[in-house]
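P.,

For your records, the input lines for the assembly:
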Amino acid sequence: MTTQRTNDERIALLQGTLDLLILKTLVMGSCHGQGIARVIQRQSEEVFFVDHGSLYLSLQRLEDKKWISAKWGVSENNRKARFYSLTAKGRAQLLEKTSEWEKLTRAVGLILGGAETSGEEA
Amino acid sequence: MFGRKRSVKDFAEEIQAHLEMEASDLKSEGLSEEAAQRRARVEFGNVGVVRERFNLQGRWQGLDKLIRDLRFGFRSLLQSPGFALSAILTLGLGVGANTAVFSVMNAVLLRSLPVNDPARLVYLRTSNPPKHTGTIDTNVTFSYSVFDILRTQNQALSDLIAYVPLSSSKVAVRYGTAPEEAEGDMVSGNFFSGLGVKLIRGRGFTNQDESDHAPLAVISYNYWTRRFARSVDVMGKTFHVNAVPMTIVGIAQAGFEGVEEGGSTDFWLPLQSRPELNAWGNPLDSGRVYLQNNTWWCLRLLGRLAPGVTKTQAISQLQPVFQRGAYVGLGNPEPEEKLPVLSFQDAKSFPGYETAYGKPLKIMMALVASVLLIALTNVVMLLLARNTARQREFSVRLALGAGRSALFGQLVTESALLVMGGGVLAWLFAVWATKALGAWAQIESSLAPDQTVLLFTLGILVVAALLFGLAPLRVALSAAPTVALKTSAAASSADSGKTRTGRTIVTMQMALCLVLLVGAVLLLRTLQNLEATPLGFSTNGLVVFGIKPNIQSVPEGVAFYRNLMEKLRRLPGVESVTIMGERLGSGSSNNSDMLVDGKLPDVANGEARTVRSNVAGPEFFQTLGVPVLQGRDFLESDTADSSHVGIINEEFAKRFLPNQNPLGHIIGPAGFPYQMTIVGVVRDHKYRSIVEKPIAMAWYMYAQIPIIGAMNVELRVHGKPLAILPSAQRAVQEMDPNLPLIKPMLQRDQYDETIAQQVMFARLAEFFGLLAVVLVATGLYGTLAFRVSTRTAEIGVRMALGARRGQVVWMILKDSLWLTLAGIAIGVPLAILVGRGLESSLYGVKPLDALNYLLAMLGVAAVALAASAAPARRAASVDPMKALRTE
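C-alpha cells returned:
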C-alpha cells in the first residue's frame, strides 16, 4: 500500500512545464492520458500534482499544434483509451524546450546560489 | 481554414475512459469500488469546467491562427508599402467610383417610390387633349372635370389621385415676417391614403378636406429637417402660402418627397379654390380657377389599380368614360377631330428621371465598369508579379515545413487585407462622390447609399477577393521546395504562361483605355462647344429673380411692376431694369401659331409655323444688350392706352415676312383677340437654352396685354452682381412683405443650368479617362519592369555577345509597342460602338470624327511610352558582367 501525500505538499505545475513533461513522457512511446499523469506523478517522486483536467486540455493544445498525434486504442487492461505519440515536430520542440529549460534552471540556480554566496561574503 | 475536427463527444469519451482507468488503478491499490470512483473524480476536478475550456480553447485556437495570419499579412504588406498602397488605392478608386455611380443610378432609376405596393400605381396619360384646350403638357395633364368624372365612374382603380403644383418653380411662403420660397403641391383628399404614404406625425388629408378646400398642410420629412430641424413644435403652426394662412397638420414619412418630376415637394395642401392659389401659380383665366376651367388641362393624375384588375382591363373600362368626360363643358367633338386616348404608364420608380438621366447614367455606369475592370486586372497583375518575385521566399518556407495550405491561407489573408483596405477606402470615396454627383446633377431626391448599394459594393469586393485568391492559388500549387536551390532569377521565374497572361491583360487594358479616351475626348469637345456657344448678348452683370405679386386686376398689376422697376432703378449700382414673363434660359417657353396681318402665314413645304412668345417690360433689349436691328425697343410710354406694339426677331422676319420691311405689320397669337404692330426687329439670340436653334420669336409689351401674374425681373448692375440682392429684397418688401425673391441667380448660371448635365457628364468622363490612363500606365509599367527584372540575365548575355544598348532599349520598347498596337486594334471597333451610344449627348462633334481617334491613340501611345521608359532605361543600364556573375 502506497502512502498518500496530502495535496498541499505537492506543487502545481506551470502550464509550459506540463507541456514539456508530457512531451518527455511520450519519448518512451505512445501512452494514454491517465498513464501520462501517473508517469509524471511517479517520476517526480510524487512532488508534482497533475490536475487531470488541465492535463487533457494540455494534450489537446499540443495536438492542435501538431506536436503530438492521437488515436483511439486499447489499454493494457483492455479498456478503450486515446493514445498519444510524439510527432517529428514535437520531437524537435522537445529538444528546443529542454535546452531552454536547462538554460532557465541553470540561470535561476546561478542566481539563487550566487545570492547565498554573496550574502556570506557580506 | 481554422477550427479543429475533434468533437466534444470524443473528448468526453476520453475523460470517461480516464475516470474508469484511474478508478480501476486505485481499486488495485486497495480502495473500495465506490471510494476509488469518487477519488478518481476528485483528482480530475470539475469535468464540466474542463469541457467548457476544451470548447473555448478550440475557438481561441482558430482565432489565434487568424490573428497570426493577419499580423503576418500586415507585416509582409508593410515590407512592400508601394505595392500595398497602389493596390489599395486602385481598388478604392475603382470600386468607389462604381459605388458612387451605382448609388445615383439606384436612387434615380431603380428605387421604387416609397409608397405602398408601387407596382400597382400608374400615371394616366392621354394621346392628346380635345381641341381648344390649353395644357401644361399635351400628354400628362387633365382638367378637373375629367378627374372628377373618372374617379366617380370607375371600378378599375381603387384610387384616383390628382396633384398639381402651386407654381412652376417655387411658391412664396411666410412663417414670421420674412418671406421665403418652397415647393408646394395641391392634392386630392386621397393623396396620402391612396399612395399608402405614412405620416410620422399628425394626419394626412381626407376627402372632406378636399371638398372643404381646408386650409391644412402636410410637410415633407426633408423640409421638416431642413427648415425646422425636426422640431415637433411645427405641428399646428400656421404659415402663409401666397399670403393665405395654412395650418400644418402632418409630417410625411422619411424618404417620401412627392411625385413631382425631378423635384422634391416641401408641402402639400388639399385642392384649393382661392384665386391666390390657382394651379401652377397662373393668373385667372376669365375669372375662373383651375377647378372651374374645363379648357385648362393642368392636373396630373395617378391611379392605383384595383385588386385583381390588369392594366388592359382598367383601360378598356375607363376609355369610354374618359372620352365622354373629356368633352364635358366643351360641346361635341368636331367631326374630323381625333378623340383623346387614355393610357397608363408605370409609376413604379421616380417620375421623369428615366428620360432625364437614364441614358447618361447607363453610359456612365459602363464607363466606370471599364475602369473597374482595368483596376481589378491591375491588382491581379501586381499580385501575380509580386508572388512570382516571392517564389524563392515561398520555396524556402515550403522547404522548412510549411504546408501548401498554410502558404495558400497566408496569401489569401494578404489578398483579403488588400480587399478590406480597398473596400473601406471605396466606401468613404463613394459617400463623398455620391454627394458631389447629386449636387452636380441637381438631383434633389435623397441619394444616400442604401442596402442595395451596399450589396452591390460587397458583390464587387467578393469578386475582387475571389480574383485575388486565384492568383495565390496558382503560386501555392506551383511553388516547389527545390526552386529555392536554384538561385537564378531567370530560371526561377521566367514562365511563358505567366507572361502570356500578363500580356493579354495589358492588351485588354490598352483597348479599354482607348475606348475611355475616345469617350472622354468626345464629351470634352462637346463641353467646349457648349461653353463657347455665343448667347447673342453679354450676361456680364445680369441678375434675374422671380416675383409673384398678390394682385387682383390687370391695372393693379401693371402699377405694381411699374412701381417695382422704378424702385429698383433707384438702387445704387443698378444700370438698368426690365421684366419678362418667361425667364430667359429656364427651358420654358410659350409657343403658339401667330397670325401675320390677320392670317396664318404661308410657309414653304410644311415648315413649322410655331412662334415662341414672351412678355417683356420697357428697355428689355437694351438691358439684355441684344442689338435692335430695325425700329425700337419697348418704352415706358407704351401703355394700355397707346398703340399696341410688338417686337420680333430676325428669324421671324426671315420666315414670315421675307423680303419686306417688317415694321408696321400686324401680328397676334391665333385664337386670341390681341393684335400688335411690329415696331422693332432684334438679332436672334439664345432664349430657352444654350443648345437651341434659332426659332421665330415675338415679344409683347407687358402693360398692353390683358393678363398679368408672376414675372421675372432682370437687372444689369455694376460690380458684384449678386450683391444687389439684399437691397432688391428690401425694395420688394417695401411693396409687399409677403414676397420673396424667387430663385434669384446670375443670368449666366440660369443658362448654364441647361447644360449642367453635359458639363457633369464631360467632367466625369474626363476624370474616368484620366483614372484609366493612370491605371493602365501603372499596369503596363509593372508588367514591363517585372519582365525586365526577370530578363536581366538574358540581357546580360546579349550584351556580352555584342548587343548595343540601343538594341536592348528597342527590344523592350518593341514589346510595349506591340501590346499598344494590339490594344488599339481591339479598342477602335469598341470605341466606335461607344461613340454611337454617345451620339445623342454630343454637341458640335461627330462620333466618328477622326481627330478624336487620333487624339485617343496618341494618348494611349504616350501612356505606353511613358510606362516603358523606366524599364527600358533599366534594361539599358544592365552591367553584363554583374548580370552574368549572379547567374
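Two observations worth noting. The interface with chain A takes residues 4, 6, 11, 13-15, 17-18, 20-22, 24-25, 29-30, 43-47, 49-50, 53-54, 57-58, 61, 401 of chain B (CB under 8 Å). Residues 483-494 of chain B have pLDDT under 50 and may be disordered.

Regards
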